[in-house]
Structures are given as C-alpha cells and as structure tokens.
Amino acid sequence: MHVLLIEDDTEAARFLVKGLRESGYAVDHAADGRDGLLRATEGHFDLIVTDRMLPQLDGLTVIEQLRAKGIGTPVLVLSALGSVDDRIKGLKAGGDDYLTKPFAFAELLARIEALLRRRPNTPHTTRLKVEDLEFDLLARRVTRAGREVELTARELKLLEFLMRRAGQVVTRTMLLEGVWDLHFDPQSNLIDVHISRLRQAIDRGTDHPLIHTVRGSGYVLRSDL
User: Fold this and answer.
1) Residues 100-126: what's their mean pLDDT?
2) Nearest CA-CA partner of 50 in 27, 83, 26
3) In this structure, which CATH number among 3.90.79.10, 3.40.50.150, 3.40.50.300, 3.40.50.2300 belongs to the domain 2-118?
4) Residue 142 above 70 pLDDT?
5) Looking at the domain that runs over 127-221, which CATH code has it been given?
6) What confidence tens digit (pLDDT) does each residue in 36-67 have?
7) What is the pLDDT of residues 162-214, one digit of tens each?
8) Category of 66 on φ-ψ map: left (φ > 0), alpha (ψ -120 to 50) or beta
9) How would you classify residue 62: left for phi > 0, otherwise alpha for psi between -120 and 50, otherwise beta?
10) 33 FRET partner, CA 20 to 30 A, in 17, 61, 63, 163?
C-alpha cells in the first residue's frame, strides 16, 4: 500500500516515515501543503496522512482542493487542534478521519488499516508492470520480456520505487529518502552508480531503455515507444 505523508515537522516526519515503512507501507513525504497537493494530484496513493497546520497550504485546504478535483483518496488528518469544532471542520473539509496529537503510533496504524478496509474494490498490489518489465512483489522476482533479471536487494528497492511512480519524475531527494532512508545528500555518486547498474540489468538484450535521466530534475521510468 502506498501512503503520502504531508508533514512539515522534520522529526515527526522522520519518525512516521520510518514507522510506516517498517509496517510494510511504501511512503512518500511532502514537507508543505503545496508540494503535498501536487504529489497527491499527480501520483497514485492508497491513503494520505496530512498534518493540519502546514506551510504554503494548510491541510484542510489541501483536502478541499483534492475533493474539488474529484480525487477521493482517503485522508487521515493529524492535528494538535483537538476540540470538537476542530474535528468537525476537518471532517467537513473532506477528511475521512481525524487524529489528535500527541497520539500512539499503534493507534495511527489501526486507523490507517480501518480506512484502507473501507475502500471499495481496492486490490492489494502484488505485481508491478511497465510495458514488458514485470516485478513480482511477493517473490521479489523481476523479468523483462520474459527474461529474469538478477538484482541486488538495494536494486530491487530502487526499481520498486521507480515502478510505483512510473511516468513521474523522481528527484534525487526522493530517492535518498525513499530508497536509502537518508535525509541529506552525501554528495557522492551513490545514486548514479545504482541507476547505472539497474539500467544495465533491465535494458540488456532490448533495443529501448526504460529509465531516463531528466536533466536537472532526476529520473523517470517510462516507455518512449
């Protein structure tokens, strides 16, 4: 399951991202409301967890704009504002649940699970596919045009991250946080080396690449056919 976390508090975000990933969720993190709205609009998420008080756009405005665009992704609001009136405002804005800070992480997980259970006809993804590239998430097995592709554990994680965001430009910061759990740029060729190895592995024997460099922005996995 793919979760978008919108949280501007660095320490809180780090704790939540780590906990959610350890619980088996794929997590994207946005540090302000404007970035969160952009990601929620352009990407596919099973659930959005958003703080209420955010820079750029507050959490309730983010939810209202998503609902105005017809995006019905379940949203769990996190907020230090816990009065009845505050909770009512959060739900009326289009939120599906409202959790007051501070909270126990176990309760957050329980509420997330409850929201996901309510989604109608939500299949549990066990296989990713982009053109002739397939990733069996249960077997951790990758094939390209029927040929098995041998990858390291880190390369598998990198490929999964890219495939879940197929067609979307993925920045170096997103890769560092999502694949290496780093919140700073080590100023090394870490990403470049792994992208290069991954390209060689999945493109071998084919006449067109799937991983493309977007100069000045990052990388994107897509077919140019």
Assistant:
1) 80
2) 27
3) 3.40.50.2300
4) yes
5) 1.10.10.10
6) 999 998 877 889 999 999 999 999 999 999 99
7) 988 888 888 888 888 778 877 677 778 899 999 999 999 998 888 889 999 98
8) alpha
9) alpha
10) 163
CATH 3.40.50.2300-classified regions of the chain: 2-118
Instruction: Provide the β-strand partners of residue 2.
Output: 26
- Residues shown for the chain: 225
Complete edge-to-edge strand list for the sheet that includes strand 170-171: 170-171, 218-221, 211-214
**Please, are residues 100 and 80 in contact by the beta-carbon 8 Å criterion?**
yes
pTM equals: 0.63
The pair of three-digit structure tokens given for residue 66, joined into one six-digit string: 């998503």
Pinpoint the alpha helices (H) of the chain. Answer: 10-22, 33-42, 59-68, 84-92, 105-118, 153-164, 172-179, 190-203
Determine the Cα–Cα distance for residues 97 and 63; give it in Å rounded to an integer. 12
The answer to whether 62 and 37 have CB atoms below 8 angstroms apart is: yes
Amino acid at 128: L
Sheet holding 147-149, edge to edge: 127-130, 133-136, 141-144, 147-149
Which regions of the chain carry the CATH code 1.10.10.10? Answer: 127-221
Classify strands 47-51 and 2-6 as parallel, antiparallel or unpaired: parallel
| Partners of 141 in the β-ladder | 136
Lowest mean pLDDT among 16-20, 21-25, 101-105: 21-25
Q: What CA–CA distance (Å, rounded) separates 201 from 196?
A: 9
